[in-house]
Amino acid sequence: MLLNLFLFYLCLTILYSGTSCQDTSKYIKKVESILSDLKLSELNHSEIQYESCNLVTIGKNIYGNGFLKLDSIAAVNFFKMKEKAAADSIEFRILSAYRSFEHQKQIINRKLNSGQSIDNILKENTLPGYSEHHTGYAIDFLEDNKNYLSVNFENTKTFKWLSKNANNYGFYMSYSKNNNHGIMYEPWHWMFKNNVD
Ligand SMILES: [Zn+2]
């Protein structure tokens, strides 16, 4: 019942919220400025990830001091998936979902300030403007007793469950072993693919 009410609320949110809330050319300028600051010239517009305009809260973060958010369309499917997982005795623990351009910039800057090279940072993180987390469609899942992401996630019941069931709800693992994005294997990172658009 509660889930149905929530889904109804989400549908209203989707109906009454505009989809063109973002100024694309301004956003691309922000990305270009980061690339120029870092002396990186390559810019592939097709790989830019835009920030969600329709965020909804999906729960508190693991620290209990903030909220996790997803794009409303991904959230509807996430809640359906979560309900089925719970019926199979799987309880999701999530480290992060939506991340803004500014948040991604802070992550990169913190690592640069700690002395890491940009080449090394980009093996684990994407540049602001390129993270799938901007879209509000991506989720990073955690192991039961850990508060950090690890390849060991592939040995968990949650990973096995996701591998078998997540596709039914539109969620896919983005960075499999030896993926062609140049990003390390990330068994914890699952992205909703909206087949409607
Ligand atoms: Zn991720």
Main beta sheet, described? Answer: 4 strands, antiparallel
Strand order of the largest sheet: 3-4-6-5
Give the % helix: 25-40%
Shape: globular
Number of strands: 6
Beta-strand percentage? 5-15%
- Overall pLDDT: 88
Low-confidence stretches: 15-19
Distance between the termini: 29 Å
Which topology does CATH recognise? Muramoyl-pentapeptide Carboxypeptidase, domain 2
Architecture, according to CATH? 2-Layer Sandwich
Query: Treating each run of at least 4 consecutive H or I residues as one helix, how many helices?
Result: 6
Q: How many domains?
A: 1
Q: What is the class in the CATH system?
A: Alpha Beta
Query: How does the helix and strand content classify structurally?
Result: alpha+beta
Could you tell me which ligands this complex binds, including any ions or cofactors? Answer: zinc ion
